[in-house]
């Protein structure tokens, strides 16, 4: 695992963007896994700046989002379909026809489950994800795989933990408005991406980051599953790195 602790927001954004650009560069049909929420915003802004500046072209990139709420009406500003369009697809200049978000709109559990399985199969059919961007929940979740999710889970309908609903209430008028269910790529699905990029900022993530990186591999901390993956980059600010006890071991990528 390459763990990079960044001294300032510009370094955070540039480091994360460089990792994405490198992972997509050598690919014939590049595929990017998108996260929503606050953590990837500096990355998307930096990639968007490079696209606007003409030094990067992502128009041919295929993208898959990590997750979606169940039951929000079409066009709801907090549905991840909308968030991905606004925060990622538009600034990055992605082709909307190549961007796919899990479908949380089907009326029955059977249909939601079938569409989740079809989403999972579409990732495989696209040749897999070259680089998956991830945030981490304060409870250690990745995607919306809450604690005790199977480490080999696939894209499916899942429950949001009370703590996640509380954390995400800031995007809604009240916690009651935060959906109780979601569709999320599974941990097994996420682990199939060729490269994982975990982004975390702020003291609220320090405990989860430390448990994921330095604690045991356990379903109690879904992000600890990253320990199973051979190509992981973790980009942190100082506050999110605040709980790490083995800082001397995180020297960043090996260079000669
Ligand atoms: C979002 C997602 C979640 C978030 C996590 C952190 O698509 O899958 O795992 O990455 O909840 O959210 P923020 O970045 O808002 O703190």
Question: Would you give an account of this structure?
Answer:
With 256 residues, the protein is α/β, with parallel strands linked by helices. The protein is 31% helix and 16% strand. The chain contains seven helices and ten strands. The chain has helices at 9-25, 41-52, 80-92, 109-125, 162-168, 187-191, 206-214, and strands at residues 2-6, 31-34, 62-65, 67-69, 99-100, 131-134, 156-159, 181-184, 195-200, 232-237. The strands form two sheets. A seven-stranded parallel sheet has the order 1-10-9-6-2-3-5, with helices on one face. It has a three-stranded antiparallel sheet with strand order 4-8-7, covered by helices on one side. Helix 2 links the parallel strand 2 (31-34) and strand 3. Helix 1 (9-25) crosses helix 2 and helix 2 (41-52) packs parallel to helix 3 (80-92). Fructose -6-phosphate binds next to loops.
